[in-house]
Structure formats: C-alpha cells, structure tokens
Amino acid sequence: MGAHGYGLRGKVALVTGGSRGIGRAIARRLGREGATVAVGYARDEVAAREVVEGIRTDGGRAFALRAELGRHGDAAALWAAFDAEIGAHASGGGVDIIVNNAGIGRSSDLATLTEEDFDTVFAVNVRAPFFVVQHGLRRLRDGGRIVNISSGAARLAMPEIIAYGATKGALDTFTLNLAKQLGPRGITANSVAPGVVDTDVNAGWLRGNPEAEAYAASIAALGRVGQPEDIADIVAFLASDDARWVTGRVIDATGGAGL
C-alpha cells in the first residue's frame, strides 16, 4: 500500500503517456499503491524505462509499453502489445484501471490553427482515448476504473488554445457517457482536469521565468503552480475502492483557477 492507504495490490493499470510529466507521476503513484503498471509511451523509451525502474525500486511491478497514439489502428496496436506482455507480470491477462493521460496541445488561436494541427490534436486527445477504451472493454474487469485526464481549459475560455480546449470538452462528454454505459458492471469513469502544472511540456515558458510563475500561481485560488503529484494523488483516489461511488464527474484539479 502507498502512503495514503489505497490498496491496489493485485490490480493492473494502464497509463498512456506514462513516461513524462503527469503520466509519470500517476504511474509511480499507482505502482506504490501496489498496482502492476503498464507504462505507455510514444517514442522516449529511455524515459519510460526510467519510470519502470523507479516503480520496481519502490517495490512495485511495471513494464513499458510502446504505443504511438494519433494514428488509425493505434489502440489495437497498444492492446496487442499489452496482451503480449501482461502474462509475464500479472495473472489473468486483464486490466483494472485505464488512465487516458497521453495528450498534446496546439497553442494556436482560431485565426492561425491549421487543419493538420486540428486533426492531430483531436486524433491524440479524443480519438485515441475513445478507441483505447473500446478495445480495452473486453479486458477491463468488472469493478474497474477509467480515468481520463482532461483540463481546466474545458471549463475556462482560453481562445489562444481553442482546439485543445475543445478536445478536453469532448473527453469530458465521453467520460459522462462511459459512466452511464458501464455503471451496471460496477466500472466508474471520471475526468481529472488539471490547470497549469510544472511539467516538461510547460517548462519552456514557465520554469526560470519569475513573471510567468507568478502569473500561473495567481490564477489558482491556492496561490501556487500545480505539481504532477497533485494530479497523481487524485487519480490514485479515483482508482481505489474509496471512490467506488464517484462516477461521471469532472474533478477540478486546477487549485481553484478562475473562481
């Protein structure tokens, strides 16, 4: 069990985009709670293996799973890779927790966003999670958990990243429908919506820039920039039996942005 006592021993978790940032923190946290973690990654095998080794060093079980999302057939390929690996790490061949964390942002506004970038951000942020769940349903055990990583941009008007915000709004609607459809199987589905988080994705404009850091902190009612662990702790709760009566919700994880 982890520090907060969410016992996930015997559970199997898949975390897409698990090699960096929020996904890395989620994978590490679920591993500390006792879950066997499939760490999905697109290209950075070194980073993914670092996460796996970190989980193993903490006494957990994990394996890396290469799956580049955003292409037709990506979900089928991801689950084929999972099927080929899972037997060596856990019995039963199924999964209990699916965390759709992989995502990309396109920081363009209405006037400058290209059709290609629009298609790409929707392919990774909406289509991939949809089909990851569709293909995963026959592997997802009753009583399982689906957690989709959304964004505060689905709630707050941010025209400078209009398509990104739209993808997260779509993801929240997907979550709502999953909760209704899968409820009879005891499967919960929830979204977690972070605000500004100190990750590599935001490093270019945030880290080492006092003005940017002060602005990002000022947005949140709690007065600081989010950390990946802030999000991972919420996901650990939603993945646990303690959250058995929570489904179809968007959990705001912005530190109170835009209140």
From TrEMBL:
InterPro entries: KR_dom, NAD(P)-bd_dom_sf, Sc_DH/Rdtase_CS, SDR_fam. Residues 11-195 form the Ketoreductase domain. SMART domains: PKS_KR. It holds the Pfam family adh_short_C2. The keyword Transmembrane does not apply. The keyword Oxidoreductase applies. PROSITE patterns: ADH_SHORT (PS00061). Keywords: Oxidoreductase. Gene3D superfamilies: NAD(P)-binding Rossmann-like Domain. Belongs to the short-chain dehydrogenases/reductases (SDR) family. This is SDR family oxidoreductase.
